[in-house]
């Protein structure tokens, strides 16, 4: 049962206030080692799902919605970015509820797959994501500078969950943009 005292909010990136942006930055930098001093790692996501305890931000996941190419087949993909929950609020199901809500979004948007890049697969495996070993092609970005296009297999990173009728397949996953 989700904790009824937590309020979940789906917000478009362009709608986020300066105060909320600062809250997101604080949560991200306290959740991930070496996170840059801003509210995103490489690029702004399209939307965020936020978990609030009164006015205190306790959970976050960014969402990217884009076309990708899987072994030459075009697929519609919802990507989860920087899932994190305040350390004092962990193990109460907030991370799971954020993933449930990403899935609702993916279903409503007629997506083919959800994907994440994660070395620790525990919470995603519980939600039905599977590991994949496809080589990936993506736009390399570093500190707001485009460096070129990379193509390689990133060990223990890519996970997917099928949403639509298309089956996952082997071959290159072309991200048609940056890697989150
Ligand atoms: C991963 C994380 C978001 C889970 O949030 P949560 O609210 O505690 O999630 P839930 O209560 O729904 O589920 C907890 C389960 O997540 C799993 N989990 C714990 N840490 C995890 C991690 N770093 N990555 C993936 N799964 C993790 C465990 O199976 C845990 O079960 P347990 O509490 O019985 O040990 C939270 O631990 C976190 O913010 N970690 C730091 C940031 C991070 O590593 N994010 C993952 C990026 S890919």
Tell me what you see in this structure:
The protein is of the alpha+beta class and 180 residues long. The chain has one domain: Aminopeptidase (3-Layer(aba) Sandwich), CATH 3.40.630. Helix content is 19%, strand content 42%. The chain is built from three helices and ten strands, in the order βαβββαβαβββββ. Strands 1, 2, 3, 4, 5, 6, 7, 8, 9 and 10 form a ten-stranded mixed sheet that branches. Strand 4, helix 2 (94-108) and strand 5 form a beta-alpha-beta unit. The longest helix is centred in the middle third of the chain and has 15 residues, at 94-108. The two termini are 30 Å apart. The site of coenzyme A has 16 residues, from strand 4, helix 2 and helix 3.
